Amino acid sequence: MKQQRLIPLALALVVAGMANSAFAEDPITFGGYLRSGVGSTQGGGGGSQSCFQLPGASSKYRLGNECETYAELALGKNVYTEPDSGAKFTVNSRLAMSARQWQDWEDNTQSYNKNTQSNNDPSTKFALREMYVEAENIGLGDAKLWAGKRFYDRHDVHIIDYYFWDNSGPGAGVENIDFGFAKFAYAYRGNTVDSGNTSTDGLDHTVGVSGHDFRLSGIKTNPGGELTLGLDIRSANRTPNDTANKSTSGYAMNVMHTQGGLLGGFNTLALQYQTGDIAYGYGYPNPNGNTQDKTYRVVDELQWQQGKFGGMAVALWERQKPVSGNGQTWISLGARPTYYFTKHLGAAIELGYDQVTPDNGGAVRKLTKLTTALLVSPDSGFWSRPQLRLFATYAKWNDAAQQAAAAGSALAANGPFDGKTHGMTIGAQVEAWW
């Protein structure tokens, strides 16, 4: 069993090693991301690090609040270049792994969910998150063609790791077509969704959700400001004998303004409207939704850097309106300011507040999380990585949040804090990208 779990990592290492041998003249590019650490729960039942996320919220404030090892290894290679025209074909790939913090060999037969600490997902998971080919300088001006599985023009809020606009996965398309006033991109995208439903024929069925993604970006609005417009149209297709799932269609409209050069950083304001099968999960569609399901979302993100003082702040409002009536409103407000005493040594404070108000008359759920951390990094900028952190996290939540929490999770009455509605963790972590 251990040999089977070694296969994905071994393949990545073999391919990476080729960059120093047979492909030395045209080397493989190597990039990636990682985060990992160790922590402990203070008070209550004690034990390993607990992580705090409000039930109904799609994200959590992540500093001192990530309980897993997560890593991505990205490998790319230019496989063809035409000297005269500059035509280029590039292969890109990305392998990801998420693992529970076991001593050594993570047991893949156990079940674990990194956010709720409940028994939902395997403790160790591998994913081939990208594998695509990109062609450029092929007689279409600056336009590029691509096909395969990829991260497709994702947009997120870093301090909560929330990808509010993410249409990633298998597909094909063209991007960077110059319209003069804007750049145009089109992608045909498809995801296969396993709803877990069983039909009357006794079989589990997967549903294909495909769609058309249209984007106009780089529209100049003011000095340093640009507008991006997006329309995403989706449809679900089930097999004829699948009586357990629906075939729901949907669409999303996105308006995003990015202001560069603001306080040494940027501000992003996004307005979103989503319906049907992508009403709630943009990157993870629900084919069993109703075509009349709706979500409205406003995301405002500010990142600044003034000398040794940097940081990021977010304000988010989301309204979910399903036909079933079990909707909710999610509000999230938070910030992570950082200050460096020297080039390499600094400190951060992250304060985040989440609130979820159910439509069914249930009590309002609330969670406040505060983290202080000492930082060590190559430079004094907010984005400087690798970054080593020594942190202490304190969280407080109300009774409604406790009652809605998954059994055994940090906020639950039978969780690691012995029924209390507050808790603390301490630990160390590293985050890096390259």
Structure description:
One of its GO terms (biological process) is polysaccharide transport. It comes from Paludibacterium purpuratum. This is Maltoporin. Pfam families: LamB. The structure is a single chain. By secondary structure, the protein is mostly beta strands. Strand 14 (294-306) and strand 15 (309-321) form a beta hairpin. It has an 18-stranded antiparallel β-barrel. A two-stranded antiparallel ribbon has the order 6-7. The chain contains 2 helices and 20 strands.
What is the residue-mean pLDDT, rounded to a whole number? 88
User: What is the H/E string?
Assistant: HEEEEEEEEEEEEEEEEEEEHE
Structural class: mainly beta
The CATH class assignment is Mainly Beta
Q: Helical stretch count? A: 2
CATH names the topology as: Maltoporin, Chain A
Give the domain tally: 1
For the terminal residues, how far apart are their CA atoms? 31 Å
Assembly type: single chain
Whole-angstrom Rg: 23 Å
Residue runs with pLDDT of under 50 for 5 or more positions: 1-7, 18-24, 108-122
Strand content: over 45%
CATH superfamily: Porin, LamB type
Sheet having the most strands:
18 strands, antiparallel, barrel
User: What is the annotated CATH architecture?
Assistant: Beta Barrel
The overall strand count is 20
Percent range of helical residues:
under 10%
Shape: globular
